[in-house]
Specification:
Layout lengths: L5 H16 L14 H11 L11 E6 L2 H22 L2 H7 L10 H4 L2 E8 L1 E3 L5 E3 L3 H18 L3 E5 L5 H6 L6 E10 L15 H4 L5
Antiparallel strand pairs: 1-2, 2-6, 3-4, 5-6
C-alpha cells in the first residue's frame, strides 16, 4: 500500500471528491461502443470490495448482446407497468415525478452494456456442499458502489435500475439457484442530447456528524 504525506492525502481526498461530485445518473444513452476491456477492469475493481469473511458473494453478468438486452427490456417493462399502475403508492409516484421516469425503458437496449449484479445467498464447494455467506447484502452493496465509481472514473455514464421483482434476470441469464438479482447497472456514453434533473446533494453537515 502506497504511503503519502499528509498534504498529499488531503489533496487526493479533494480530487476524488470532485471526481465523484461530477457523477450524474443518465437515462439517455448513446449506442457508441465501449470496449469490453473497460467493463472487465471495472468489474475487477468492484470485486476488490471488502466482504463478510472474504466470501466475495457476488457475480457480475455483463451483457452486450442485442438479443439478450431486448429480452431484458421486454421483461423489465412488464414489471415496470405493474409497478406504476398497481404496486406503487401515490406518495412513491409523487417522489418519482421530478425524475421523469415511466414504464418505457429504451436505455436497456440503447446502452452498449448492461451489468446485472447477483448476490450469492450461499456458496458451493467443489462437491456442491453449501458454504455459509456473511453480510451478503452489505458486501454486494459496497461492491456496487465501487463498480459505479469505477465506471464513472473511466468516463462512462451509469444508471442503476431495479425493477421489482427482478426474477426475470435470473431466468434470462440462466443463473444458479444460490443467486438472486441485486441490481442492474446500465452503462455507456451519454447521448448528445442527454439531460439530467437539477438535483442538489445534501451538504456535509446534513449527512455527517463528527466527534473529535
Amino acid at each position: 500500500m502506497s504511503r503519502f504525506t499528509d498534504d498529499e492525502i488531503i489533496q487526493k481526498s479533494h480530487e476524488f471528491n470532485q471526481l465523484l461530485q461530477k457523477r450524474r445518473t443518465v437515462r439517455d444513452f448513446s449506442d457508441k461502443p465501449v470496449a469490453k476491456e473497460v467493463i472487465e477492469q471495472c468489474i475487477l475493481a468492484a470485486g476488490s470490495a471488502p466482504s463478510g469473511a472474504h466470501m466475495q458473494p457476488w457475480h457480475f453478468v455483463a451483457i452486450g448482446n442485442a438479443d439478450i438486452k431486448a429480452k431484458i427490456r421486454e421483461a423489465a417493462e412488464v414489471e415496470e407497468k405493474e409497478f406504476y399502475e398497481h404496486r406503487a403508492s401515490e406518495e412513491w409516484l409523487k417522489a418519482l415525478e421530478p425524475l421523469g421516469t415511466d414504464t418505457n425503458k429504451p436505455f436497456l437496449e440503447k446502452a452498449p452494456w448492461l451489468i446485472a449484479v447477483f448476490a450469492e445467498r450461499y456458496g458451493l464447494d467443489d462437491q456442491g456442499n453449501r458454504i455459509k455467506h456473511y453480510y451478503t447484502p452489505e458486501s454486494v452493496g459496497i461492491s456496487c458502489g465501487m463498480l459505479i465509481s469505477a465506471l464513472h472514473a473511466s468516463g462512462l455514464a451509469t444508471l442503476t435500475h431495479t425493477p421489482s421483482p427482478m426474477g426475470f434476470l435470473k431466468e434470462i441469464l440462466q443463473r444458479p439457484a444460490n443467486e438472486r438479482p441485486y441490481l442492474l447497472v446500465v452503462c455507456g456514453h451519454p447521448a448528445d442530447d442527454a439531460t439530467v434533473p437539477d438535483l442538489k446533494r445534501l451538504e456535509l453537515e446534513k449527512v455527517s456528524s463528527f466527534f473529535e
